[in-house]
Amino acid sequence: MPKLDIRLRTVASLINPQGDASVVHGDIGSDHGGLLVSLLRSKRIAQGIAVENKSQPFDNSCRALQGLCAEVRFGDGLAVIQPGELTSLSICGMGAESMVKILEAFPDRVPDHVVLQPNRQHELVRGWGLRNGFRLNEEQIAWGHWPYAVISLQRAKVSEFDASTPNDPAYDDVDLDAALLFGPLILKRWEPKFADRLHQEQAYLQGLTQLRGDYEHRLHQIQKVLAVHAAR
Fold this sequence. Notes:
The protein is an alpha/beta fold.
C-alpha cells in the first residue's frame, strides 16, 4: 500500500483528534482504501466502513482492507449506512456539489463529525455546514498538486438563536462571503503561502479577457480580502 499523499495525510490528521478508541469511521468514495488502511493501522479508529458505487474501486478497497477491522459496501453514499452507525465520516476528491448531494440525501445518517475535501466550490460545503447546525472546528490547506482545502465540521448543539444567521464562532469578525469562499480560519491565519496564492490568482483572473459569473465573483472577493489585509 503506497503512503498517503499530503492531501489524504491532512484528512487523516483531522479524524478522531481526541483519540477515542471506539470510533467507527466511514469513507465514501474510498477508491483504493488507503485512508482507512492508514487510520486502522495507526489505531486512529476502531473500525472502518468504505463505500463505493463502482466495481473497480470497490475491488481495490476490498483487497486493501482485507484482514483489517473494516468492510466495504457497494452503494451510493449514505444509502448503505444505518442511522447512528458512524462516529465520523470523510468524503474526499470530488466536487462540493456531489458532496452536498450525498449529505442531504440521508441527513439522519450523517454523523456528528464530518471531514470533507472538495476539489472545487468549497463555499458549498461550508454553506451546508452552516445550514445544518455544524460548526467549523478546523480547516487546513494541503499544498499538493493543487491547494486542497480540508474542512472539519462538528455538529453543534441545537441553537436558541436565529437560524438565519451564522451561529458559528469561526465566522466572527470576518466577511461572510469571503469566509465561505476561502475559509474563515484560513483567512484569520493568513499564512504567506496562502496570500501568495491569492495574489497569483488575482493576476490570472485580471488577465482574462472576459469574466462572468463565478469568476467575476471570485475576483471581487480576492480583491476585497487583499485590500483588507493591505490596510492593516
